[in-house]
UniProtKB/TrEMBL annotation, chain A:
CDD domains noted in UniProt: F-box_AtTIR1-like (cd22159)
Subcellular location: Nucleus
Organism domain of life: Eukaryota
Main location: nucleus
Pathway, per record: Protein modification; protein ubiquitination
Lineage of the species this protein comes from: Eukaryota, Viridiplantae, Streptophyta, Embryophyta, Tracheophyta
Annotated source species: Brassica carinata (Ethiopian mustard)
Listed GO CC annotations: nucleus; SCF ubiquitin ligase complex
Domain F-box: 1-48
Pfam families noted in UniProt: F-box_5 (PF18511), Transp_inhibit (PF18791)
GO MF terms, alphabetically ordered: auxin binding
The protein's name in its UniProt record: F-box domain-containing protein
Keywords associated with the record: Auxin signaling pathway, Developmental protein, Nucleus, Ubl conjugation pathway
From TrEMBL, chain B:
Function per UniProt: Aux/IAA proteins are short-lived transcriptional factors that function as repressors of early auxin response genes at low auxin concentrations.
Species assigned in the record: Brassica carinata (Ethiopian mustard)
Lineage: Eukaryota, Viridiplantae, Streptophyta, Embryophyta, Tracheophyta
Protein name as annotated: Auxin-responsive protein
Family: Belongs to the Aux/IAA family.
Subunit structure: Homodimers and heterodimers.
Amino acid sequence: MDLRLPSKVLEHILSFVDSNEDRNSVSLVCKSWFETERRTRKRVFVRNCYAVTPEAVARRFPETRSLTLKGKPHFADYNLVPDGWGGYAWPWIEAMAAKCPSLDELRLKRMVVTDECLEKIAASFKDFKVLVLTSCEGFSTDGLAAIAVACSNLRELELRECIVEDLGGDWLSYFPETLTSLVSLDFSCLDSEVKLSDLERLVSRSPNLKSLKLNRAVSLDALGSLLRLAPQLVELGTGSFSDKLDQEAVSKLSQAFSEMKELKSLSGLWDVLPEYIPLLYSVCPGLTSLNLSYATVQMPDLVELLTRCSNLQKLWVMDLIEDKGLEVVASSCKELRELRVFPSGAEGLNDTNVAMTEQGLVSVSEGCPNLESVLYFCVQFTNAAMVTIARNRPNLTCFRLCVMEPFSPDHKTQQPLDEGFKAIVERCKDLQRLSVSGLLTNKAFEYIGTHGKKLRMLSIAFAGDSDLMLHHLLSGCESLNKLEIRDCPFGDTALLENAAKLETMRSLWMSSCCVSFGACKLLSQKMPKLNVEVIDEHPLETRPDSSPVERIYIYRTLAGPRLDMPEFVWTTQKNPEIGVSHLAIK
Amino acid sequence: MSYRLLSVDKEGLATSPGLKERNYLGLSDCSSVDSSTLPNAVPDSDKKSSLNFKATELRLGLPDSQSPQRETDFGLLSPRTPDEKLLFPLLPCKDHASGNKRGYLAKSGSNNAPAAKAQVVGWPPIRSYRKNTMASSTSKNTNEVDGKPGLGALFVKVSMDGAPYLRKVDLRTYTCYQHLSSALEKMFSCFTLGQCGLHGAHGRERMSEVKLKDLLHGSEFVLTYEDKDGDWMLVGDVPWEIFTETCRKLKIMKGSDSIGLAPSAVEKSKYKD
């Protein structure tokens, strides 16, 4: 008697299973469930592009519609990963083009995408709909033109903080007149001016357009006419907000803003002049997300704006907001969930003069009951402030504090910031992401290891006394998935003693630490399921085992050693001459 | 759960050196580190006494002793944090690291930027995209974009006698002296003439008119600026456009301190143009 569920029935049931975590469980039940699941999975997430091969993914999930990939490690954002390290999108696009013709969505983060990649996408997927590139590089506006011209059902084209070779604004003109399906367009990271008439025509023939993020070159005047053509926008990124407009133009713009009844998210606002802030008043009450992190306005003007944003859930702003401004946020923005405060000083470390201290964050923690995610750059902090914040907001899930001066103690007591971070990890039981800074001793990491049970991502810089600290983290933080460390005296012992832990994590990054070459070789030899990459710009062949390496990047992988390593990335597989033969391995 | 890589017997585990706190300077304490990381012939019981060379080799110097470029980091860290140097021997440890290693590292790749004022790579952790955007905002050059005047911001610091901290203003957001001084007055009102207090919006505006005059022309405070030659001048003497181009810093001085400025400002403007 065949007790198996008919595959058609199983397929139908699985169509209700959205979460990939659940689908992963389903695929472990038995072979037939594995088969059914893999043929019906529509969205695939590969959070480390080197953890599996593109061919394996394409082969396993032939019907997938959506692929999300992440390439370089997070610290690449801060120039700690040399150019040419890797993260190439091409092999993935090639594999998908060959095996997954239904693919219509591609989301890439921190990957190298070339014009060839974009052309290949345009040529291979007949119904391509969504392209979202975040922090990617390697392509030019010509590649964008290829996408624009060929993807006749394009819905989303978003370039978020990409580094693009800007050859001019013509690419926009390649969208055919027949393209009417656009829902989201974000070209905010491009420099060149696009032809306004083409942009206006594109917007007018896109009735479903919900999100439009312009680049800086789009003038304030142009913004007015665009808004009149798309009052239904839910997300708007303005261009430069500093041109001089005459009275008539100003009132027209004001009128255009007041017509935007659906607007929930506002960004851009580059160089916004204080006198134009009132133009935004009409949309403030509806806003749930406001990105003022490029707006160089002072606190009094920011306050005027924020008092009107009673429904704000996400606020990104510069430290020009000062403590006073954050007090206003605390009293006006009761729905706030996420706060990011960026430094305004060009050199960061120099400008200790803006009137924003730990008090600003304390106020927000007191006034905003839903606050769960914080990124805060500041010059100094205190333990007492962190204790208060933790007490006020045990619901924090993400706490990233960047005290900009390395090794800064509590500025009132001159003590390390250990007790402050202890309070955070102890009280905030659901904390998943933590970045620490300031003067920290072993104790801080002991606390984190003891209490940070839900912690998935941890970033550490310029901290620590000894190796013991890494040991606390690797042995204590059960849910640890990504650990990134720079300039700390962590070395071999803790790494080798907790080696198997590394297989339970996505990745470990250590740069300017004290890991020796010998330890890397040993780790590599003993842990075949890990790729141990030594990223060092100096030749390694003649190095003694004891010499420290500049950077290591260790990640679990099913794909084995990658084939696209540049010369400054060393592994024992790629460079067997640096092997471990002279060590007696037990 | 044990995640240790190499097998060390139970006894060794119980007294595993990895769990002992270590003074980073104390190279001699590291002997026992070695027995758990390198499978050499030294028996566990000998941990304490087996101060072999390998142990000291594994115990490396500091993050900044790894490569020449990091040596410049000292320029950033040590002058600013002299106390930390004593409390946390992270920095002076440089002197204890083995000469061989340092010699090797010093030789290779000596082409790193020897910035007089050291900049730590990737710190503070701000994305390059943001840095580039802000840099183009704050650059003093006028970026001609299709014939339009420069769009960048022009930040200058504003200090005030008696105020505990400075502010920064973007000169490009103002169109004339009046504009600038009313903005400054708003910003620094908490320090000036505290007894005026807040009488509500209207009252405040009236107050600000009064204070405005006081600030610029009157008894209490005077607005001055430092120009690109380093001279302190009274604000208001030169046309606005020239002012925005030459002003590097602003200072709200007490009236009495600024008396000496007036003549030199006049003299200076004779030399200009």
